[in-house]
Specification:
The chain is an alpha/beta fold. The protein folds into two domains: 6-133, 3-Layer(aba) Sandwich (Rossmann fold); 154-356, 3-Layer(aba) Sandwich (Rossmann fold). It has helices spanning 15-26, 40-49, 66-76, 87-90, 92-101, 115-133, 182-191, 210-221, 275-285, 303-311, 329-335, 345-356; strands at 6-11, 31-37, 54-57, 81-84, 105-107, 173-178, 199-204, 225-228, 239-242, 248-254, 257-263, 290-294, 315-319, 341-343. It has a seven-stranded parallel sheet, sandwiched between helices. The protein has a five-stranded parallel sheet with strand order 2-1-3-4-5, sandwiched between helices. Strands 10-11 form a two-stranded antiparallel sheet.
Length: 359
């Protein structure tokens, strides 16, 4: 019996974009486009006839904007929605509104450019679709076994290190990884942290430019300082650094000072930034002084890196299934034996505080 495909509706006023995304999806065995629409009114007509599993939705459209349509969908007939727009970087307020209205994730529109760019857009779009299809927003059966393309490991950016030969220190550092559903989870987590918490470095899968706006927004909501990481930034108490979209971010150390290296590189576990890259660097440069947290997200990015952290003496926490939008990344880390504690989102911050205060 053939596996059920994820059925997608594309809503965008650009015929070129609709065709481009359709072409991307047509290459996937587990995903199909059941319809396209040039605006929300046509989309509503399509949904009345055939309800999709996932909607890919633009924000700027004629007759009705995407945010208004999203709000109506979530209040009347919730369906997992992915926002695909050029506004995710420049018009970040719209992106944050979309997330607050219930959008599962946000991606940038694919552009016709180099073969590599188009291929990376394909990976981003199809992985977002798969994540949306299995999100808690709408429990869907039949997508547990999905064929994905071969993926690079953290070896592509940072070779596996032998046990650290760094000088002794008791300074703690917290590294966090998240994907689908992570923007809200991270907001909740960071708001619970005290002003004097050990330095935090975060990888959240999200588009380039959006990470800066996300960090600025969090900085207004949290007691700690939150900023987008820049190459060479020190990891300081009371501060969280968020990896910039489209760049890998590594934890490094010089003497007693932790800092971040922000660099280009290939997609690792189908992402850039990659949680595996951050976690591997934490294993190498922080070792037993690291505390790892893996949150909601599709796929297995971070699982191997967290196992390396565990093997180097770090203390690791995974978000539990009940509080995850997608219990993919935590589940894979747990399966590898990389996790010390599994707990609800509402308990993670307190546990991180407890662990980092232990001498």
């Amino acid at each position: 019996m053939a596996e059920k495909k994820i059925r997608v509706l594309i809503v965008d006023d650009s015929a070129v974009v609709r065709q481009t995304i359709s072409d991307v999806i047509s290459r996937e065995e587990d995903i199909e486009v059941i319809a396209t629409a040039s605006d929300p009114f046509y989309a509503a007509e399509k949904i009345e006839k055939d309800i999709p599993d996932v909607i890919i939705l633009d924000i700027e459209m004629p007759r009705m904007d995407g945010l208004t349509f999203l709000h109506k969908i979530m209040s009347q007939h919730p369906i997992p929605v992915i926002i695909c727009s050029t506004l995710v970087g420049e018009g970040s307020d719209s992106a944050f509104k979309a997330l607050s209205y219930g959008a599962v994730s946000i991606i940038t529109k694919p552009k016709i450019g180099t073969k590599q760019f188009f291929e990376e857009s394909r990976i981003t779009i199809t992985d977002a679709i798969r994540g949306a299809a299995v999100s808690n927003l709408k429990k869907l059966a039949g997508f547990s076994s999905i064929t994905v393309q071969p993926k690079l490991t953290a070896d592509a950016v940072l070779p596996a290190a032998k046990r650290s030969h760094l000088s002794d220190t008791t300074d703690k550092v917290i590294v966090v990884g998240a994907s689908t559903g992570g923007t809200e989870a991270l907001t909740f987590f960071l708001q619970q942290l005290p002003e004097d918490i050990a330095g935090v470095v975060i990888v959240q899968h999200m588009p380039e430019n959006f990470t800066r706006s996300f960090a600025e927004r969090l900085d207004t909501l949290c007691r700690i300082t939150v900023k987008e990481a820049k190459n060479g930034d020190s990891v300081l108490r009371g501060q969280a650094l968020i990896a910039p979209g489209n760049y890998h971010t590594l934890l490094k150390r010089s003497g007693a000072r932790y800092y971040v290296e922000v660099k280009e590189g290939p997609l690792v576990t189908r992402h850039r930034p990659s949680v595996d890259v951050l976690f591997r660097s934490a294993a190498a440069f922080a070792g037993k002084n690291a505390v790892g947290v893996i949150m909601t997200g599709m796929g297995d990015d971070g699982a191997r890196g967290m196992k390396e952290m565990k093997d180097s003496g770090a203390f690791n926490i995974a978000q539990d299934e009940e509080s995850c939008v997608v219990f993919g990344m935590p589940k894979e880390a747990i399966k590898l034996g990389a996790v010390d504690k599994v707990m609800g989102l509402d308990k993670i911050a307190a546990e991180v505080v407890r662990v980092t205060e232990i001498e």
